[in-house]
Specification:
Elements: E1 6-13, E2 20-22, E3 29-38, H1 50-53, E4 57-60, E5 63-67, E6 72-75, E7 107-115, E8 120-128, E9 134-136, E10 146-151, E11 161-171, E12 174-183, E13 188-194, E14 209-213, E15 218-222, E16 229-237, E17 243-254, E18 260-267, E19 279-280, E20 284-289, E21 294-300, E22 308-312, E23 324-325
Parallel strand pairs: 2-10
Antiparallel strand pairs: 1-3, 3-7, 4-5, 4-8, 6-7, 8-9, 8-10, 11-12, 12-18, 13-20, 14-15, 14-19, 15-18, 16-17, 19-23, 20-21, 21-22
Region (Disordered): 310-349
Biased composition (Polar residues): 310-319
């Protein structure tokens, strides 16, 4: 039979990182719930199990019957984004909140809170004891809450990002240009890409490719985020995975600039017998900075010699996960916001 434990102390506090966050549903700040319990039979301290600690819920402080839902959510899983607002941006300080507390010798449960609404939200905690009694932090003996502040985020577009091309390398019968997209506000750390050849593609030298222009042939790639590296790219296999007897590839350098999305145009001297027609995707990338702030960009890869970028409000139509043959005349059904300009800007690195 389970032990009938009772709560003797329940308190909620923030962490040293503070209580302010962007209302983008990605940035997280911590809520630490501290708890003590006893065995009511002998009054000995009771150590809650992990499952019992998981009964702790975050609630609206002014309505403890209302669990945090809707625009305000919480989880035990910490994500990759910063938990601290950028310095020197004029956001309200957290001095009005309860003082931060280190993890005490008593038990604790940490939750990560995020929001999609720009507002102040007073958050408390509650837990239901085995006897059915609900203990909350809105009570005389346990009174505490966190005043979380959600701030409206910016959105990334060409107006606050930079896009440029570099003549990266060349040789007999081949030429490489790398293109870069970088934030002018906070550093990009993640790119969610659509419309490219993934790791299951049989033509190994075309992994991460977004276009094949048979005249040339010219190959276009959209690389995952990461540090500077060298990859082997080119026309290496038939479409069914057989090695091409006249395979062509080069070791090329990519991602020379940190916190940037890298795309490549590679002119080759490769074999023409892999595909009868050229093809291309309508690739997009949703870029996230270190605070989870995002913006979607679409890349034009239907011209053999250049790659362009456009602001995007919605995903492409037709679907971007399907390649399109060079004899198709359709263009992406983009809703282009602000400027469509993809004027190349020189790197300042």
């Amino acid at each position: 039979m389970s032990v009938q434990w009772e709560v003797t102390f329940l308190s909620i506090h923030t962490s040293e990182a503070g209580t302010s966050l962007f209302a983008n549903g990605k940035m997280q700040v911590a809520a630490n719930v501290l708890i003590k319990a006893i065995n009511p039979v002998n009054y000995n301290p009771y150590i809650l199990t992990a499952a019992e600690l998981a009964r702790i819920e975050l609630v609206d402080y002014y309505n403890t019957n209302e669990k945090l839902v809707g625009p305000w959510t919480y989880t035990t899983l910490e994500n990759e984004f910063s938990h601290t607002m950028p310095p020197g941006t004029g956001f309200a300080a957290d001095e009005g909140d309860l003082p931060t507390q280190p993890f005490m010798v008593d038990q604790h449960q940490r939750y990560w809170v995020s929001t999609t609404r720009a507002e102040v939200k007073n958050v408390g905690a509650r837990i239901t004891q085995p006897n059915g009694k609900v203990v909350t932090t809105r009570s005389a003996e346990n009174d505490s809450y966190i005043a979380f502040r959600g701030y409206q985020e910016i959105r990334y577009s060409l107006s606050n990002s930079e896009w440029w091309r570099e003549d990266t390398a060349s040789g007999s019968g081949w030429d490489q240009d790398n293109y870069f997209l970088r934030s002018r506000v906070h550093s990009f750390i993640r790119a969610d890409r659509t419309g490219y050849r993934n790791d299951s593609f049989a033509v190994v030298g075309m992994l991460n490719s977004v276009a094949y222009h048979r005249a040339g042939p010219d190959l276009h790639y959209m690389w995952p985020m990461g540090g500077r590296t060298t990859v082997n790219a080119g026309l290496t296999h038939y479409a069914d995975g057989r090695v091409h007897p006249k395979a062509w590839s080069r070791d090329i350098v990519i991602r020379q600039h940190a916190n940037s999305l890298c795309l490549t145009r590679l002119k080759t001297s490769g074999p023409l017998g892999i595909w009868d027609l050229g093809w291309w995707y309508y690739p997009t990338a949703t870029m996230f900075d270190q605070y989870g702030i995002s913006g979607m960009f679409e890349f034009g890869v239907n011209e053999y010699n250049t790659i362009s970028v456009h602001n995007r409000g919605t995903k492409s139509s037709p679907p971007s996960d399907t390649p399109h043959d060079e004899n198709e005349k359709t263009t992406p059904g983009a809703e282009v916001d602000e400027s469509e300009s993809s004027n190349l800007r020189p790197s300042t690195d």
